[in-house]
């Protein structure tokens, strides 16, 4: 059978690789003994990215330029792994690519943009990574930098008859999760920008019942907050500062992975149970893996909201 796949989507330096690196750290805890890297060498890239993030967060300097952090991604990377359940191996794959490929107007990158569209179409879960500070400051003056129009365009073109989950993940948002008021502002701002995608999950949409979405903010560092913008060589840089006395403390980073895996494995289980042979060969172990991924899936993360929760097997009023 085909691999179950998911991809990240977002512009240059928005935090795609960082988010995948944080998610990669969670595999072991999520599925103890049931995770098997297809190619350990590729996963090494993510482990290194995570160590770099940790070092940045522990650095004694009091500010941090984004240009100095994790190295930008040079080409597309496909991370293959298996979920082991009894004697079966369920092949999964997630994809990372350079954010510069997301620009449909760049003639040099035309073929790359088509590749992004192709990857998005074949992925059952798309994780849109949102560079929150661009949306949250100066009345949204720099919001174009978050490339939401491009992300929404790719998402809409990727929709088919198959079920799909869109995870909208605001990152670099430690500052906005400090108070209830700012958390609400983050959520309403992200909802406003993604109004079109969200509307595609509603009853009037042709994708109703096939498309689910969730906004799930994560803290990838926990002790670093956005400070200010700075312009350099025509680029807008973000300057961050450490919170004195606070340690590196990622939070909620397992949640996008739990949502993605629950959705993919549930879909797999449903397809299998549609056939007699599938029902007979479906193992108790698969149910156990799904249960362990599902058990700590949270619907109460600050600044989160779920659209079309039934498709995720959740109650309608979450
Ligand atoms: N404070 C903070 N910094 C972050 C967060 N996410 C990413 N960063 C930083 O943002 C920078 C860019 O992150 P990457 O993960 O390389 O971004 P990318 O989207 O993979 O970039 P490309 O591969 O060039 O498309 C790095 O220096 C990270 O340390 C976050 O949630 N909080
Ligand atoms: Mg990258």
Question: What would you note in describing this structure?
Answer:
The protein has 318 residues and is of the alpha/beta class. The chain has a single domain, classed as Rossmann fold. It has 10 helices and 11 strands. The chain has helices at residues 16-30, 40-58, 110-122, 132-136, 148-158, 180-193, 195-199, 254-273, 276-281, 284-295, and strands spanning 4-9, 35-37, 63-65, 77-85, 88-96, 125-131, 164-171, 211-215, 224-232, 235-242, 305-307. Strands 2-4-5-1-6-7-8-11 form an 8-stranded mixed sheet, with helices on both faces. A hairpin with a 2-residue loop joins strand 4 (77-85) and strand 5 (88-96). The two termini are 33 Å apart. The structure holds guanosine-5'-triphosphate and magnesium ion. Magnesium ion (MG) is lined by residues 16-17, 72-73, 96.
Features:
single chain; 318 residues; alpha/beta; Rossmann fold; eight-stranded mixed β-sheet; three-stranded antiparallel β-sheet; 10 helices; 11 strands; 22% strand; binds guanosine-5'-triphosphate; binds magnesium ion
């Amino acid at each position: 059978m085909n691999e179950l796949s998911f991809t990240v989507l977002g512009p240059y330096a928005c935090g795609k690789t960082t988010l995948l690196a944080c998610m990669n750290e969670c595999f072991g805890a999520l599925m103890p003994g049931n995770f098997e890297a297809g190619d350990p060498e590729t996963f090494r890239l993510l482990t290194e990215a995570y160590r770099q993030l940790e070092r940045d967060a522990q650095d004694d300097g009091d500010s941090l330029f984004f240009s100095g952090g994790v190295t930008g991604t040079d080409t597309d990377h496909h991370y293959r792994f298996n979920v082991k359940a009894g004697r079966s191996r369920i092949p999964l794959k997630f994809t990372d690519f350079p954010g510069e490929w997301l620009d449909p107007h760049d003639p040099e990158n035309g073929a790359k943009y088509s590749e992004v569209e192709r990857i998005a179409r074949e992925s059952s879960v798309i994780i849109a990574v949102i560079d929150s500070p661009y949306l949250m400051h100066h009345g949204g003056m720099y919001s174009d930098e978050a490339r939401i129009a491009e992300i929404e365009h790719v998402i809409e073109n990727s929709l088919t008859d198959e079920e799909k989950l869109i995870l909208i993940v605001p990152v670099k948002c430690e500052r906005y999760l400090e108070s209830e008021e700012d958390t609400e502002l983050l959520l309403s701002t992200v909802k406003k920008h993604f109004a079109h995608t969200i509307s595609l999950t509603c009853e009037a949409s042709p994708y109703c019942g096939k498309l689910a979405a969730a906004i799930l903010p994560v803290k990838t560092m926990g002790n670093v907050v956005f400070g200010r913008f700075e312009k350099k060589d025509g680029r807008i840089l973000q300057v961050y500062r450490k919170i004195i006395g606070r340690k590196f403390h990622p939070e909620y980073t397992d949640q996008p992975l739990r949502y993605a895996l629950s959705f993919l494995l549930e879909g797999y289980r449903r397809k299998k149970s549609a056939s007699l042979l599938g029902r007979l060969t479906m193992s108790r172990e698969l149910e156990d893996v799904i249960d362990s991924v599902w058990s700590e899936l949270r619907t109460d993360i600050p600044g989160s909201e779920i659209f079309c929760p039934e498709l995720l097997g959740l109650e309608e009023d979450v």
